[in-house]
Amino acid sequence: MGLLHTNLVMFFLLLCFEPLHTTAADSSLPSGAKALDATLQHYAHNALVKPKTGTIYNAQLPSNLNGIKVSALRLRSGSLRRKGYPNYNEFEIPKGIIERPYVERLVLVYQNLGNLDLSRKYYPLENYTYLAPILGLLAYNGSDLSTRNLPELDDVKAYGDPVLIKFRNVKPVPSGAVAKCVWFDLKGTSNFTNVTGEGNTCSTSQQGHFAIVVESPSAPSPAPAPAGGGGGGGKKSHKKVWIIVGSVLGGLALLVVLLLLVLWIQKYKEKKKMQQMERAAEVGEALNMTSIGDTMAPSATVTRTQPSLEHEYAP
Ligand SMILES: *[C@@H]1O[C@H](CO)[C@@H](O)[C@H](O)[C@H]1NC(C)=O
Ligand SMILES: *[C@@H]1O[C@H](CO)[C@@H](O)[C@H](O)[C@H]1NC(C)=O
Ligand SMILES: *[C@@H]1O[C@H](CO)[C@@H](O)[C@H](O)[C@H]1NC(C)=O
Ligand SMILES: *[C@@H]1O[C@H](CO)[C@@H](O)[C@H](O)[C@H]1NC(C)=O
């Protein structure tokens, strides 16, 4: 009973806290960088009501996306190629940008995650610390704004000079550390380049998400890796492993609880049956006794030679 009790408690704890934990995190913010991109694209698109070509429109975001800044800019493809767009917030877009396949108009969506916590959350980087929040520049097919979701363009490149990203409010580099630019491509793969300019400029020939980071001092991570091995998968695969381990353990716990429940029910049934049988036996015994008594009484009067009865009734 004690074991069953603790298992039941554990089971209900699992039931109650697991969903609470995940829904609390997921209901307010999109989960994952791709989902965030899609959400921000949606609000950027909403900002383009009868847009003027070449004008930056700032998107209105709901309160759960507080702190994030999103803009939309619609350009003719030819104009982007010939002139670029020298001042799209932190991005300096040179001439020579070409998309493949060709589209008549593009929408360039600008993102600024606004703070380092969100940057870490959506773009986790093992062993690195963010000095500036993630900035994003993503290109969409802007030929038809009446579609609900603008189609992404995945091949847009700077064939001449690179696009420059001039970060504002970069945190000071810790002494002894070297700042790096990090670039996440559309698949989320990261790559590092040197910071240029006055320690605040990164350059890129492609779209994606960008930030300035430094290597973290090698402090022991709070959760040590379950198995050794040379990097590669990084945080995502660790998370996966933990999710799998968690599910397996949870499943096992559930199984044990169910088993115990079944056993307990069986035991309970048996006990009940036993009790019923006992009761039946008691009633039956009583009946037997009286019937025996009835039949005994006359028989006793007949045969005096049997001493057993007298023995039985004696104290
Ligand atoms: C861009 O959108 C237009 C209008 O919907 C469509 O005709 C064209 O095929 C699209 N181009 C690409 C490369 O997706
Ligand atoms: C990552 O950057 C290095 C140079 O810093 C470059 O040689 C390499 O091709 C880049 N990788 C990808 C996938 O673009
Ligand atoms: C980046 O900086 C390091 C040291 O400051 C230097 O050795 C390296 O050549 C640089 N890489 C590029 C691609 O400029
Ligand atoms: C992070 O640093 C630790 C310890 O220096 C190292 O074992 C691990 O491979 C690093 N992770 C990545 C993704 O480089």
UniProtKB/TrEMBL annotation:
<keyword id="KW-1133">Transmembrane helix</keyword>
<feature type="transmembrane region" description="Helical">
    <location>
        <begin position="241"/>
        <end position="265"/>
    </location>
</feature>
<keyword id="KW-0812">Transmembrane</keyword>
<dbReference type="Pfam" id="PF06697">
    <property type="entry name" value="DUF1191"/>
</dbReference>
<protein>
    <submittedName>
        <fullName>Uncharacterized protein LOC107485402</fullName>
    </submittedName>
</protein>
<keyword id="KW-0732">Signal</keyword>
<dbReference type="InterPro" id="IPR010605">
    <property type="entry name" value="DUF1191"/>
</dbReference>
<dbReference type="GO" id="GO:0016020">
    <property type="term" value="C:membrane"/>
</dbReference>
<feature type="signal peptide">
    <location>
        <begin position="1"/>
        <end position="25"/>
    </location>
</feature>
<keyword id="KW-0472">Membrane</keyword>
